[in-house]
């Protein structure tokens, strides 16, 4: 009873979706909100407040499946998803030094509504980051980031040990644990440079950029997430 009152409060104040990793595994349930994490654990970089697992999951040395449910809790119906890898156990808490190696280009996710939705996303063959070779027994951590449309990010991780493809310790991937729900959509992300680094700004160039910004705002797209400091414009189409 108390639990359901608390949950309602959380939904109305926090108001954003959370991620559950369904394949190949999860560090553990970090959908927690308490006095230590008044905004919720999942906002904590790099792995949503969860320490490195002792129970690692096996994952293929040539890359493999990753599946997750992005729509826990009420909130936004659009997000940008990043999937990164961190190598080894030389970093804090016997985890990776950093989570800086991108596995797939970031992509837009379109949910059915602002309400909680149970849909699942499955990427059946996520490759290793470019120019990396992993051997059976190597340890790494996969990080899934859900960037909400207001700019804050939710983190979830799974700690893996690489195994040769076909190793029976790798969890079987099938249509039960790895599928795309029909109520979820995807969007590509494009970058349009509006001012090159070092370019001399000219009044006519400025107004052209301003008119692009104006059209984005009038289209109401993505709450105007425009990192002008980077000289780039993110568009979700
Ligand atoms: C590891 O153990 C924790 C705690 O029992 C559990 O929540 C988590 O799902 C486990 N992870 C894997 C990959 O089995
Ligand atoms: C909040 O939850 C985390 C994770 O379970 C736990 O480590 C922490 O002690 C909790 N804080 C409080 C004040 O209960
Ligand atoms: C990988 O992690 C496992 C389980 O935590 C550990 O037993 C093993 O020593 C680690 N391997 C390396 C190379 O660090
Ligand atoms: C990030 O991690 C990689 C692999 O562990 C390491 O080679 C690199 O130096 C790290 N980068 C920074 C900035 O610490
Ligand atoms: C899919 O794999 C899981 C885990 O091995 C298993 O529990 C489930 O029964 C499988 N489903 C089908 C349809 O084969
Ligand atoms: C799910 O959709 C993504 C994005 O279109 C696609 O890359 C992936 O292959 C799909 N997964 C399955 C199991 O079809
Ligand atoms: C500024 O724009 C005008 C009109 O397009 C152009 O003639 C001029 O060369 C530009 N100046 C610079 C510094 O780019």
UniProtKB/TrEMBL annotation:
<keyword id="KW-0732">Signal</keyword>
<dbReference type="InterPro" id="IPR046936">
    <property type="entry name" value="BIM1-like"/>
</dbReference>
<dbReference type="GO" id="GO:0005886">
    <property type="term" value="C:plasma membrane"/>
</dbReference>
<feature type="signal peptide">
    <location>
        <begin position="1"/>
        <end position="17"/>
    </location>
</feature>
<dbReference type="InterPro" id="IPR046530">
    <property type="entry name" value="BIM1-like_dom"/>
</dbReference>
<keyword id="KW-0472">Membrane</keyword>
<feature type="domain" description="Copper acquisition factor BIM1-like">
    <location>
        <begin position="17"/>
        <end position="183"/>
    </location>
</feature>
<keyword id="KW-0325">Glycoprotein</keyword>
<keyword id="KW-0449">Lipoprotein</keyword>
<keyword id="KW-1003">Cell membrane</keyword>
<dbReference type="GO" id="GO:0098552">
    <property type="term" value="C:side of membrane"/>
</dbReference>
<dbReference type="Pfam" id="PF20238">
    <property type="entry name" value="BIM1-like_dom"/>
</dbReference>
<keyword id="KW-0336">GPI-anchor</keyword>
<protein>
    <submittedName>
        <fullName>Gpi anchored protein</fullName>
    </submittedName>
</protein>
